[in-house]
Amino acid sequence: MSENNPPRGGSSRDDEAHPDHADQSATNSAGEHQDSAEETGSEEIERNQAGPDPAPQGQAADGAAADSTSNVGSESDEQLAGEVSRLREALLRTRAEMDNLHKRAERELEKSRKFAVESLLRDLVPVIDSLDQGIEASGDSGTEGLELTRKLALDMLKRYGLEVVAPDGEIFDPQWHEAMSMAPSDDHESGQIITVLQRGYRLHDRVIRAARVIVAK
Q1: Which site in 58, 75, 201, 207 is 20 to 30 Å from 90, CA atoms measured?
Q2: pTM of the predicted model, to two decimals?
Q3: Which residue has the higher pLDDT, 177 or 204?
Q4: How far apart are CA 150 and CA 127, in angstroms?
């Protein structure tokens, strides 16, 4: 049995028997290692020349989406600020218009109160003129009753704002006076009223009837 088993260590003997084959294997192995090292060095050089590795595609997409969202948010904020500014200006204009309308309404109401009896006073002025003419025509006798009636009527009308315009000796004012004629006078300055032909009347700052006068030249 022992005689038929091949002796161990046969490969060593084969290597010893074929020394050229062992040297060739060692040479081939060393060459493969050298080629692998050269390939690794070449890959490292190419990576260094190409620069850092680009960001992963998913990360780049996330960054683009974030930038887009930021831009949209900035535009929305600007639009919102512009809308708020426009609404504020509109509110201020509306408030100013309402204030002006309120003041205008108050002025109109006050004016209507002041001049509500204007037409009535215009109708009553001729009655006062008739009383004046009756007093002048009566002379000194029998005028007491007419004068009392005239005084009562004027007092009542004054409570509603009526004022008598009797500008004897005053400077002519076209707002309140109506010049019927002009005459020379040594006792009056030019433009001064010489004679009042008919008294005038006014309601506050509005003429009911201008006083009719003669003015010095």
Answers
A1: 75
A2: 0.52
A3: 177
A4: 9
